[in-house]
Amino acid sequence: MASSDPTKRPRPGPWPPAPESTAMPPSSWAKRTGFRPKFSGETNASDSGQIVLAPKPKEGDSQADLEAGRVRANTAVNGELEREKVPPVTSDKEQTVKRRRDSDGAVAPKSSVPSVNGAAAAATQQPESQPHPRRPSRNGEAVDVLPPAVDDDGFVARHSHMKYELRDTPGLVPIGLYGFQHYMSMLGSLILIPLVIVPAMGGTHEDTAMVVSTVLFVSGVTTLLHTSFGSRLPLLQGPSFVYLAPALAIINSPEFIGLNGNNFKHIMKELQGAIIIASAFQAILGYSGLMSVFLRLINPVVVAPTIAAVGLSFYSYGFPQVGTCLEIGAVQILLVIIFSLYLRKVSVFGHRIFLIYAVPLGLAITWAAAFLLTEAGAYSYKGCDINVPASNIISEHCRKHVSRMKYCRVDTSHALKSSPWFRFPYPLQWGTPVFHWKMAIVMCVVSIIASVDSVGSYHASSLLVASRPPTPGVVSRAIGLEGLSSVLAGLWGTGTGSTTLTENVHTIAVTKMGSRRAVEFGACILIVLSLVGKVGGFIASIPEVMVAALLCFMWAMLAALGLSNLRYSEAGSSRNIIIVGLSLFFSLSVPAYFQQYGVSPNTNLSVPSYFQPYIVASHGPFRSKLGGVNYVMNSLLSFHMVVAFLVAIILDNTVPGSRQERGVYVWSEPEAARREPAVAKDYQLPFRVGRVFRWVKWVGL
Fold it and tell me: Three-class SS of residue 518?
């Protein structure tokens, strides 16, 4: 036999072939860790957090198989590895997943195994357009050479499986189940903002119930619009925490302090006017195509500290409010932590019930316990008159006791009893909006921050559920529609703008549900629930201490989700570490300087201590002859997210760094997207609307 001639045997690789009896099993250390040698000795972090070392072998060299312990020939035909010997047999579902992997592998760099921006990386022995190779194992089954990276919380590499992908249409029962599950897992993001801003505006519990119903209605409508005419990704729209700080700054403006009459409606009309103008600016930014240009400046190193600063900025409100009834608030926080961390891997009928429903479960259990304690008399007023204002109570003991009992008792709100069974939210229900240019400018800047937040959500979610990331035109179209959605929020009067909620990515990764239809079905359910007035009344009756406890968890999650964007870059790079560190530090330190500037102990005594940081517009260091300019500058530089964004975007775009080190977002090329049917089906507008606007090249495929 010619093959037995020693002169014609293949040259051995860098490792001698191991005997069959000592071959490493598939669960070897090399497979589990993805170990690869790299001659330079440098390391890169993949999106799964593993340290992956990779060489760039010469063309035609033999590749050593670390798992089987034998040499694997690198025979290529037209740039593809030869695979005819063991063709994998896959089902339709697996073929769909494989096509998505193949398309995502095209954006990976040639010389690196770690994934860039979450897209599946090509193996080092192939051209960049090829997916990672599959080799035959001893039993004839196709096995990935690079192991799938899955972390505990569901953040997975692109080669993991989703239960339902973007265009999947499961049956009616799965659609209803997953749609309801998606919205319940994000309940806190939907309902907590009205529970904070309405009392701050002087609104009653009935006003809070009406605003909650309006938020549910607008969220359902804007979600349907976004999944149909925006990015078309399964992303829930709602009131973002990005708008909370500017809303509180406007609420606590000096001209609104000490107003007589209905403060709530007056301040709400001011908020509506500012939101409408800022939303129109955001719509122009998107539909004009300017967002496509702006995308070049937005990278993970910019998104991460900006979104993290949003969550960290409300520390003055969180636990100080929890401390008003510590035994209830602390239990609430502990329950949510136990469900989301210690019980996160517990599955019931294949679903991680405790991880998905951590917030509603913790709220329900704590609320039930507080109700039993209230009915049992543990929180009785002990002879103190609750009808006397706290300032007129002579006894110091009664003053403190009554104040504490109002926070601990669950029957202080009459919103559920006074709410009607049916109520239809309608535009301009609070009156005609009032427009002031200085408040509008503040909101316009904040709308840019909201757009940056949404860009990060678009990219991360597309890597999980779509065939490719969207094109810059699709991103511009989605930002433009978010602007129109916020106009609707301003007309209906939700108190904040409408944007893509950051928690979407976490929910999709945990539930592995990426079906567009399920989110649309859930949006329809949300619209129906918003018409039932008792639903808004029930949510408005949540005690304030429980709201603060939930917000502690939600804001911590928001900060962590923001920092998780760093997994698309080289998180260990000293360049990125310094930029992120400076951004976060100055986002806390600079606003602290503005917020304390010129404050005297006797100033604004009517404002609660946790709202003191938001009255900076009246006493900031900018004191020119133009009062409006003073208001804008003092307000903007007192927002943590604005300072973090400015520091990060300047440093990231001026400090030298490679694309891989910076983790530059990779968007699909328009021409390639039009040629690929899967991408076209993912992002093209429905009902042939795209054909009408085909000439608008900068806001589509």
Answer: helix
Please give the pLDDT value at position 610. 66
591 φ/ψ angles, rounded to the nearest 5 degrees: -60, -35
How large a percentage of the chain has pLDDT more than 90?
30
Pick the closest to residue 579 from 565, 592, 560 (CA basis): 565
Cα–chain center distance at 427: 28
Helices first, then strands: H and E counts in the chain: 28, 10
**C-alpha 192: how far from chain center:** 16
What does the pLDDT average to over 399-422? Answer: 78
| Contact predicate 250/490, CB 8 Å | no
Measured N-to-C along each axis, helices 437-465 and 263-287 cross at an angle, to the nearest 10 degrees, of 60
Q: Which are the contacts of 287, defined by CB distance < 8 A and separation ≥ 6?
A: 476, 477, 480, 483, 699
Report the alpha-carbon distance of residue 698 to residue 701 in Å, rounded.
8
CA neighbor of 202 nearest in space, from 264, 244, 251: 264
Give the DSSP H or E segment for 43: none
State residue 106's pLDDT score.
42
The Cα–Cα gap between 560 and 642 comes to 18
Tokens of 479: 């930002």
Within 10 angstroms of residue 280's Cβ, the number of other Cβ atoms is 18
- Asked whether residue 57 carries a pLDDT value surpassing 50, the answer given is no
CB 370 within 8 A of CB 412: no
Quick one: CA dihedral 342, 344, 350, 353, positive or negative? positive
DSSP codes joined into one string, 625-646: S-HHHHHHHHHHTT-HHHHHHH
**Tokens read off for 661:** 């080190």
617-648 CB burial, b ≥16 within 10 A, e <16: bbbbebeeeeeeebbbbbbbbbbbbbbbbbbb
Give the CA distances from residue 549 to residues 310, 331, 610, in Å, rounded to whole numbers and listed in that order.
Answer: 17, 9, 15
In DSSP notation, 180-222 reads HHHHHHTHHHHHHHHHHHHHHTT--HHHHHHHHHHHHHHHHHH
Share of the chain above pLDDT 70, in %: 69
pLDDT digits (tens, 9 = 90+) for 289-326: 899 889 999 999 999 999 999 999 888 888 888 888 88
Q: Distance between CA atoms of 228 and 478, rounded to whole angstroms?
A: 10
**Are 370 and 328 within 8 A, CB to CB?**
yes
pLDDT tens sequence across 191-219: 889 988 998 888 888 899 999 999 999 99
3-state helix, strand, coil in the chain (%, to 5): 55, 5, 40
pLDDT digits (tens, 9 = 90+) for 420-471: 899 999 999 999 999 999 899 999 999 999 999 999 999 989 988 888 899 9
The rounded distance, in Å, linking the Cα atoms of 426 and 461 is: 32
Decide: 275 and 486 in contact? Cβ < 8 Å.
yes
Residue 634 has pLDDT above 70, yes or no: yes
Contact by Cβ (8 Å): 456, 307: yes
Both tokens of residue 430? 């609070």
Tens digit of pLDDT for each residue in 5-40? Answer: 555 555 555 555 555 544 444 444 444 444 444 443
Residue among 534, 445, 460, 463 nearest 502 (CA):
460
Structure-token pair, residue 636: 């903007």
What does the H/E/C string look like for 447-479?
HHHHHHHHHHHHHHHHHHHCCCCCCHHHHHHHH
Q: Which pLDDT band, with edges at 50, 70 and 90, does 178 fall under?
A: confident
